[in-house]
Amino acid sequence: MLSSCQSSKEQAVLSGVLWGGEGNRLIIEAASDTLHVSDTLLIDNHGEFSWNPDTVIPGIYFLKKKSNDHLLLILQTNKPVHIDAQYINFPTNAIVTGSDYHQDFMKVEEITKNWQLNLQQISEISSDSGWVASPQAIAIIKTKMDSVTNIYRQKILSVSTNPLVKMFALLQSAGSKQLFNPWQHRNLFYQTDSLLTNYDFIYEVREFSRKVKEIKEIEHLSKKFNPGDIFPEMILSINLNDSISTKDIKGNITYIGIYNPKEKENQILYTESLNDIKNYQRKGLQTFILVTDSSDINIKNNKYYYHNYTTGLSHNIKEELGIVKLPANFLLNEQGVIIAKNIWGDKLQNVLRQLHQK
Asked: Which end of the chain has fewer CB atoms < 10 Å from its terminal CB, N or C?
């Protein structure tokens, strides 16, 4: 009987063979930029490579030669990952042991690439010399993009059966456009987060849970004042040292709009909403325009009460009123009860019409 006196060599966190890859290099890096983990792996003359740093932060990593040609791996300190692949076809034909669901991650990334390509094809129409950037033309492009995005949401969810893969799918984006809006699709984020408790050793999972917690806090804030609640007591305007507060406005239907004039969307809805409500001022509609981030208030109509909340009266107006994002508005009845909240365009017109028909 023969036995080796040599101590067994500890298996590397990441190792493998890439046939036909001798003399080349691979990059291993964390999927999250905040970790700043990046290393270069040399493939030796046998096509073998290994990576065994002093410290491994459990998480999601990319192993790649080129930016568009990589494997997505889950690395843990106590679960080594081994790869066997033909370098020419890497990563499509790679056999990976020790890292779960890498094939599903690849499917998610492929669906994302196709989504990005479809969005690009739709947006290319705006480069045509005969295209005119009218509101109608822009709306058509937006509608097409939203329709395509919705299709790819369904596709990507169909392959995301594991919570880790679903989390990865929910975070996909194309430039500044997110495939899933964390606020609009918050129930999906909540559901996924509740299934990730066994994966909290992974950095990206902890970050995802932190973001979900923030969404829940925002949702709690959004429920602070809703239709049926009495609008809170607060100062709405100051004119020549005379203040107008909530208690002074009872007896009339009241519109309260809160805007940040520096943001383009706020400017557009600010102008639209003023046009929507001007016809009702003759019928007794009181209007208060509150701005939160400007030293200048452009008073276009003397019948409106304007107030700039950067003067120190209320730095926390968004928190006080449960405003998730600006612009925001409230419609109050004669008793100061909120009738509608955050409605614009036709919806705003319809509610105003119904209120003034009584």
From this structure: N
Q: Which residues are CB-contacts of 146 (< 8 A; sequence separation ≥ 6)?
A: none
230-233, long-range: CB within 8 Å, 24+ apart, which pairs? 230/335, 230/336, 230/337, 230/338, 231/256, 231/330, 231/332, 231/336, 231/337, 231/338, 232/320, 232/321
C-alpha to C-alpha distances, 324 to 14, 27, 186, 290, nearest whole angstrom: 44, 41, 14, 16
Rounded CA-CA distance 228/56 in Å is 54
Rounded to an integer, what distance in angstroms lies between the CA atom of residue 84 and that of residue 94? 6
Average pLDDT per run of 10 along the chain, which is 358 residues long? 53 89 85 76 91 87 82 88 87 87 91 94 82 81 92 93 94 90 94 93 92 93 90 77 77 86 72 77 80 62 63 66 87 91 86 78
Burial status of residue 212 (CB atoms within 10 A of its CB: 0-12, 13-18, 19 or more): buried
Residue type at position 286: Q
- Over the range 14-41, which residues count as b (16 or more CB within 10 Å of their CB) and which as e? bbbbbeebeeeebebbbbbeeeebeeeb
H helices of the chain, in order, are 102-123, 135-158, 163-170, 186-194, 203-222, 264-281, 317-321, 345-357
Name the β-bridge partners of 38: 29
Closest by CA position to 253, among listed 348, 169, 173, 178: 348
Two tokens at 4? 């080796």
- pTM of structure: 0.75
